[in-house]
Amino acid sequence: MKSTAFTDLENALKKRISEERFAHSLRVAELARKIAEANGLDPEKAYLAGLLHDLAKELPEEELLRLAPPENEAERAHPQVLHGRAGRVLAQELGVTDPEVLAAIEGHVVGVDPEFGLGMAVYVADQAEPGRGVNQDLAERALAGDLVGAYREAVRRKLAWLRSRGIPLHPKTEEVRARLEG
Question: Which of 22, 148, 154, 162 is deepest in the core (most CB within 10 A)?
Fold first, then answer.
């Protein structure tokens, strides 16, 4: 049974994002919860981080820049990459205080340290949620208990997608790739 706090956050989220984005967020939250359970992580934290991961995704560029001023060239060139950091700020404004949940929200865009299970669960869930119609193998791998392997492949696929579109890689993403392959 969902807590009142989750229901209140779902209602607040529903007011801030489109119906399609909200449906995506619910699917990410549910998959993140299942991945967390399969990998010995806190399922409620995973659900909450998954629910709020795209809280800032549909904000205008000016608002993203205000909430999360760019710290490097990749962020200046493509402000949409700031939606993870901006989402963290908005989640705090909604009363979320758990540092792991906040870090998972922030890290779902550029990646997280491979030691951060909750962040990996949300990252994989975001890429593999059923509504996307891709990466089901990543979900299956994470649900089978191989979260690090699923995350490694999710990062590889995201890097390939970014490169194919000529989007500069974020320094954090490069750092994560190096740690995963090193």
Answer: 154
Q: One-letter amino acid identity for 146?
A: D
The structure tokens listed for 91 are: 């989640």
Number of continuous H segments (helices) and E segments (strands) in the chain: 11, 0
Give the per-residue pLDDT at 103: 98
- φ/ψ of residue 144, rounded to 5: -85, 0
163, with CB counted inside 10 A (0-12, 13-18, 19+), is: exposed
Residue ranges per structural domain of the chain: 4-181
Collect the ranges in the chain with pLDDT lower than 70: 1-2
Out of 3.40.50.1010, 2.60.40.1930, 1.10.3210.10, 3.40.140.10, select the CATH number for domain 4-181: 1.10.3210.10
3 to 7, 8, 48, 168: CA distances (angstroms) = 6, 9, 11, 40
Given this model, what pLDDT does residue 2 score?
59
Residue 81's closest CA among 46, 107, 115?
107
- pLDDT value, residue 68: 98
Using a cut of 0.85, tell me whether the model's pTM lies above it.
yes
